[in-house]
Every structure is written in structure tokens, then in C-alpha cells.
Amino acid sequence: MIAAGITGFATGFSLILAIGAQNAFVLRQGLLRQHVFWLCLFCAASDALLITAGVAGFSALTAALPALPVVMSIGGAAFLIAYGLNRLWAARKAHGGLDTKGSGQGLGRTIAIAAAFTWANPHVYLDTLGLIGAVSVQYGDPSARLVFGIGAVLASFVFFFGLGYGARLLAPVMRAPRAWQVLDAVIGIVMLAIAAKLLSALF
Questions:
Q1: 81, CA 20 to 30 Å: which among 90, 103, 116, 123?
Q2: pLDDT digits (tens, 9 = 90+) for 95-105
């Protein structure tokens, strides 16, 4: 049982560790200290729902709806391109550095953006419904499979809350205007690169 939980945690953590659109957004909000708790909770809970579905055996969803991956890829790429260009534009403008006390976007808008990064990203479904679901199949015992799923879900919570609140350690560095411009530029490039990868898989 313990081995199943450790495997689940390691699998979930390794899949989510790569810097992607969702992670970059959580990092940015963590630096701004805006709605960090609710954002991390939303991202982790979304992962938990998808991981649960994958472990429960619903990875056949794409087989039942063959057009779903294409639709999700196009929609996700369009959103990533728009957000990526927005961050590159922000990087071009003069910036006064990180102001953690300033007013920012509301909670609703923050969660809406996080929802788009999460649910409009086909890679999320591949990682959770597909890969984690496939790894869980090796556990014939339902109890062991449950522990595996709990381990994967725990990894998601540890990662997102660690990223969101750990970003504050970088706050002193990000007070420099140049550092903030570099971060926005990197985020923008990451978004566009992910969008290009999504579209290249279709054409």
C-alpha cells in the first residue's frame, strides 16, 4: 500500500513539474500575492477531479468522443496565443517592478483564467485521464489503486501550494523592473511555444 502511494505521488509530481501555462500563471499570481490560496485550491482540486476520473477508468472518454482532442487543442492554442501575446506586450512596456500591495484583477477573473489554462489544455487530460489512469491499471487490488490515486492527488496539492506560496521568496528579486519584464517575456514565450506544439500535432 505504501509503495502504491509513493508511486502515485512520484508519478503525479513528475507530470506536473514541467513549466507550463498553468504553472506559469500560478507563479505569477504567487509573486503578486493575489488570490493565491483560492487559485492553488482550484488548480489542485481540478487535478484531483481529473486524476480520480483517470484512476476510476474513464480514460476511454477520448475514444468515445474522437473529435474532442482536436477541439480542445484548437481552443487551447487560441487562448494560449492571446495570453502569450498579452504578456509579451506587457514585457515591452516600462514597468515599475513588482508591487505586492497594488490592486490587481478580481478573484473571479483569476479563477476564470486558471480554468481556461486547466480545462482547455488537452495535455492535462493526457496526463491525468491517460497516463495516470494507465499507470494505475497495474494495481489489480482496488485498495492499492485508491492509495495510488490519493498519492497522485496529494502531489498536486503539494506542488501548487508550494509553487504559489514559494513564489514569495522571489518577491525581493522581482521588485526590479528588469526582472519583471524578463518574467513576463519568458511566460509569453512559454505560452506561444505550448500553443505551437498543440497546433503542430494537428497539422
A1: 103
A2: 555 544 544 67
